[in-house]
Amino acid sequence: MSLNVIDLIKGQLGPALVSQAASQFGESESGISKAIGGLLPAVVGGLANNADNPGVVDAITKASSSGILGNLLGGSSSNPIITTLLSSLFGDKIGGLVNSIASFSGISNNSAGSLLNLVTGATVGTVGKYAADNNLGASGISSLLNDQKGIISSLLPAGLSLASFGLGAENWFGQAKETVSSVTSTAKDNLAEGVATARENVNEGAREIREQFNNNNNNQGGGSIWKWLLPLLLLIAAGYFLWKQCEKKQTTTTMASSTDSTGTPADTASATTPATPATPAAKTDENIDLNGVMLKGYKGGMEDQMIGFLKSGGYKSAADDSALKDKWYDFDHVNFKIGSSTELETGSQGQLDNLVAILKAFPDSKIKIGGYTDKTGNEASNVKLSQARADYIKAALGKAGVGDQVLGAEGYGSKFATVDAKASDAERAADRKMSVRFAK
């Protein structure tokens, strides 16, 4: 499964930015959020459509060091990288795109235009930073953008389409259109070949019928039943053969046209639908008892395991640090924004507060923080990033008043990663985590 860059960019366009943009532009937060939801796939689609354009790739590379992510609201509208890039991506279609988004979200055209610049800035800044963090060159960026072509249309909100922007699928995904045309042409050739073959077989059958009919007339009397029965049987057999030939070719054609340009079966209905794998039940927060105080966390999650270990006396009975060093507890909710060591994703603070509560409830306990990355990118950079994140957690706990109970913080980079670097981003996510263990 290819990396969906829209998931990366959403971290830059969270509730805080939506609220600030609504205040600055004088619009409702719902309107701003709705507009961003329509603009984001449109901008990513524009980049994907220009994945092999050196100017576009160069703009993404420059954006990573331009500081644009640090000033999206103030700097995007006047940034020359953004204005030049938008012209390259959409040309004279910019006006139609802005009008469609304004109408769809219920905000003014001016606000929609400003949001287009903002979303473009967030997009190229995020993609550029991802490319820099993972050592992607121009070809790597092009490949990443090309991978987005198959998902853009499905991510547009209900009520919007490429056509509504004046960006028909035939303009953006011409290669797919050519592939369909090629498959159709091949199918026609195969069907024509089948019909021709069948026609030859029928002609041959007809010739044999005529010969047999003549022989019957010569060898038997005019009233013989074979004069009409044998030709009829041969004609039925020839017709059946013709039908089977056409059916065979049509089946081949159907299978060919049900395949996308990479040879992967498309989402078409079939007579037999394979069983859908069971989807694991989503985890939900429950009340975790901390000496009468209820913390919100997963049953069997970090808080539940740590409290259980402490209450069982496992920490007190551990002779030294070596008895504790192999058991790590992964944070369930604490996540950093992509590429950042100083900004947490929304919802992370609650679990940090839970950890503080646990440490305060068991003041004799000590912990150590660990940071981890997946196997992609430069290892020195991975170690640096994971160390900075571990230090951030340690500092946050210190500010909350439990710093004396945090004995250390270490970034391990990809040292303990288990998922192959070539696996999908979703699979590699298991290796990108923050963890905590008890220490002495």
Structure description:
57% of the residues lie in helices and 7% in strands. The chain has 18 helices and six strands. The protein has helices spanning 5-9, 15-25, 29-49, 54-63, 72-75, 80-90, 94-105, 109-133, 138-146, 152-155, 169-172, 174-219, 226-257, 302-311, 314-317, 349-361, 379-402, 425-428; strands at residues 286-290, 293-297, 329-330, 367-372, 406-411, 433-438. The strands form two sheets. A four-stranded mixed sheet has the order 3-6-4-5. A two-stranded antiparallel sheet has the order 1-2. α17 links the parallel β4 (367-372) and β5. The radius of gyration is 33 Å and the shape is extended. It starts with a helix and ends with a strand. 31% of the residues are buried.
Short structural summary:
With 440 residues, the protein is of the alpha+beta class.
Largest sheet: 4 strands, mixed
* Residues in β-strands, percent: 5-15%
Low-confidence stretches: 169-188, 251-280
Order of helices and strands: HHHHHHHHHHHHHEEHHEHEHEHE
Overall SS class: alpha+beta
Assembly state of the chains shown: single chain
Q: So what's the overall shape?
A: extended
Cα-atom Rg, whole angstroms? 33 Å
Q: Gap between N and C termini, in Å? A: 42 Å
Mean pLDDT: 76
Helix content: 55-70%
| Structure annotation, total helices | 18
What is the topology, as strand order, of the major beta sheet?
3-6-4-5
How many beta-strand elements?
6
